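Dear Dr. H.,

I hope your travels went smoothly. While you were away I took the liberty of generating a structure for the chain from your last submission, since the lab meeting agenda had it listed for discussion. I wanted you to have the full record in hand beforehand rather than looking at slides cold. The sequence, exactly as received, is reproduced here:
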Amino acid sequence: MVKKMNKKEFIKALQEKTNYSEDKCIIINDVLENNSFVGKKNSDKIINDLMINSFTEEEAHNIYNIAKEIIFKELKNKLKHPFKSQN
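The corresponding predicted structure, in token form, is as follows:
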């Protein structure tokens, strides 16, 4: 069964992968929600927004890559199992 990822589960996945607090992961999620995820200009904007929110440049790049991995993994699962239950 493929489970649909919601905002709460995304934040939890960020916490597990980054070892940041829930508060920091909520900030990361807010930055990601306010920006489109596709495109070079958008990745630069996301990284800059993360740096404005007190992350270093290295942390911002790492966060971006982790978030991209989580999101694309979820999209891949959705494409592989489009008709499975979303419970």
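Two observations you may find useful: The helical segments are 7-18, 22-33, 40-52, 57-80. The chain is about 70% helix and 0% strand.

With kind regards,
E. W.
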